[in-house]
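User: Good morning. I'm curious how zinc ion would be positioned relative to this chain. Could you predict the structure with it bound?
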Amino acid sequence: MSQRRTTWQKQAVQAALEAQDGFISAQELHLAILGTGKKLGLTTVYRALTDMVEQGQADSLAITDGEMRFRICTPEHHHHLICRSCSKTVEFDLPGFEALASSVAKENGFSELSHEIELFGICSDCR
Ligand SMILES: [Zn+2]
Ligand SMILES: [Zn+2]
Ligand SMILES: [Zn+2]
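Assistant: Good morning! Here's the predicted structure, ligand included:
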């Protein structure tokens, strides 16, 4: 990314995303922003979201219907527990897995590991 200016549009998108509890689609977030009285196009919202994903400020996820959903995210490595019904998301660490993964990789001569773990289920509110 050569240009990294933070526009008011991006700030508005970021603030709206921070106010959400789980993953949200660009359309839903767009409506939420319009509801606050800010005039932003859906394309701008979408572009700001993909920027944030590239910069590690947001997570993206394609849930069941294949539509991309976004969520504000902590930059540290973590995993997600996601409700299939309401897309409420819990971030969690798995230190035992990290240790296991790096020892498996080392045994097989792999370096520069990465992985993503996303567990799907139904949260207590939706049950
Ligand atoms: Zn996350
Ligand atoms: Zn739920
Ligand atoms: Zn991990």
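Residues 1 and 54 are 9 Å apart (CA to CA). DSSP finds four helices and six strands in the chain.
Let me know if you'd like a different ligand tried.
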